Every structure is written in C-alpha cells, then in structure tokens.
Amino acid sequence: VSPSLTDADFDAKPQVLLLGQYSVGKTSFIRYVMERDFPGAHIGPEPTTDRFWAVMHGPSERITPGNALAVQADKPFRGLSQFGTGFLSKFESSQCPCPILESVTFVDTPGVLSGEKQRIGRSYDFVKVVQWFAEKSDLILLLFDAHKLDISDEFKRTLSALAGVDDKIRVVLNKADQVDDQQLMRVYGALMWALGKVFTTPEVKRVYISSFNDKPFREGTNAALVERERDDLLKELRDLPRNAAVRKINDLVKRTRYVKVHALLLGHLRNQMPSLFGKSSKQQELIDNMPDVFRTVQREHH
Asked: Are 188 and 173 in contact (CB under 8 A)?
C-alpha cells in the first residue's frame, strides 16, 4: 500500500534516496555534490552512518530529531510516525545553506548489515522504512564499491522491496578510478550479473561508473570515462526538479485509477450479494473465486 499524500508531499522538493552496504560512499557522494560537509556527517571505512539522515536546505546549520520532524506539518515525514519511536530515534534532519539543497533533498541511509545484525540489531523494520522512502523519492541511487560487489542476503531483501519503483533506480559503481582497465571490465560484468539475480525485469539498470571524492583521479585509470559518467549523473540530478512535477502528477493519476478499480470491484461484489438469506455462503464463494471476479469486472468496464 502506497503511503498517503499530504500537502507537504506536493510542496516538497525532489528527494534522492541513497542505498548501499556500509562504506560504499553514500555520505561521501552527498558531500561531493554539496561541495561541503553537512551537520552530522561522518565518513570512515567502518559502518559510520547508523541512522537515516534527511539532508535539507535551511538558513543555518542545525539538526532536527526525528520525533520533531514527524509532527511538523510543513515536512513530508509525518507518515514515518507509524514506525514508532524506535525508528524516529534513528532519524534526523540535517539542514544547512547550500545551493543544490534549494532544489533537492538527499536521504542518507545506514549501510545494510550482514547476518542477524540487520534484523536483530535494529529496533525497527529496515526494509519497510526503505519502502516508505522509496515511494516518496524521485530518484533512488544504489551505490556499490568497485572492490566489494557481493550482495548480501539482507541487501537482496532490501532491493526486492523496491519492486514497483524500478523506474526510479540508478546504479552507481563508485571508486571506479581505483581499478585499472581490465579490472573495471571484470567488475562491471560481475555487477551486472549480480544485479540480474536480484532484479528480474528484462530492462537493464542504468549504471554510472564513477568516483565521488575530493581526491583527483588516479593516473593510468579510466579517468575520462569516469569523468563523463560523473557528469551524466550530475546532469540527471540537476534535471530532477524539472521532472519532479510530472512524477507527482503521474503518481496522483495512478492512485486515482486504483481508487476507481477498487470502487468498481466493491460495486460488483455488492450487486452479487443476496438481499436476505445466504449472505455468508455467497460471500465466501466470491472470495474463493476472486480472480474470476476481477476478470468479470475487467470485461464489463474495459
């Protein structure tokens, strides 16, 4: 079920959701695009981001806790209250004056853990929270490290939860300047093979091969390719505000169609029910033959 839309959702800036296993460069990507640090940012080889961060524009640097964000009518996060205080205590907003944040909001996520840590170590349902953010986002970036492409079972479950928003997904092969030409070819092939096992759609995901950090590209690597790919991704980010309005209208039209189908089904089911006796048996019969009911309604109104 898609989360409900509020006035704040229509007024909100386009949102970019970053997903990946730990230390693949999610926070570094945001810092690179912003060309500055943001309050609460911490970067390191270990799992550093232990909470969800909404990086937004603000007149001054400040951090707003999740419990406060969930009750602010002018912020598109009120629906997160359904996940309880266990999640809200791990959700914060980082606000700072930055030109790109005037048109885009970034959502940084904790790295997906391996084994039982992912399920037991969190006080909230990580996959369902990701689903909620994915529905609200205009672009979803899946970041992979060129040195560790293994997709854990936990990350695979997270990616499987993105079914239905496949059109928003872009893949970023980060730190690509740290491998030579031959290694990059093998890494790219391994990544496409791994993604093919997770996403069963016939369409191939767009993969950006680049590197997002403040250091210059390594000599002797595919610097020209990495730079062109980086520019393509940054262009897509710049075009996001222009396409966001169309996406919101499309989402509204899709929801309207669902409501219409739901109303037609209810009307058909009500017409099939007896007026006096045998309601329980007829109700069970309709439930057991629901696929046939769908096809009947489709023939009547298509």
From this structure: yes
